[in-house]
What we know:
Blueprint: H1 5-19, E1 23-28, H2 33-37, H3 46-53, E2 58-59, E3 66-77, E4 80-94, E5 100-107, H4 130-143
Antiparallel strand pairs: 1-3, 2-3, 3-4, 4-5
Amino acid sequence: MHFRPIFSVLPVLALLMAGCSNVRHTHGQVIPEENLAMLEVGKNDKQDVRRFLGSPSTVASFNDDEWLYITTKTVDKPLSPGNLVEREILVINFDENGKIAQINKKDASESRVLTPSEKTTETQGQSLGIVDQMLDNLGRGFGSQ
């Protein structure tokens, strides 16, 4: 049997090329426009919104009458995962009667990039050394008898 080297290289090349492809991810809720079109300000209530759009991604921290539906689309490129392609935030505000007061759409251009602080907060308490920890554990062991 005569085996050609080109046929042994093809599967390896196919695997390498598959590793170089872009992978798309969608996180959150994808809201069909026809479902959103069913909602009207002043007419529909929270139950209607939940029925047409599902549960919100989150509810505003200090306002239970503000629901947010967040959709984020990213693409993973070789050696560069998580590149933002699109972000859409649907904000629905309700009035005191639970009816829709306002519907707003926001995109990534209206968002802010937050950089976590490198600072740390000092905590009160004690720092036990290895000897303190050993003595503390011995005391617990003898106390359980």
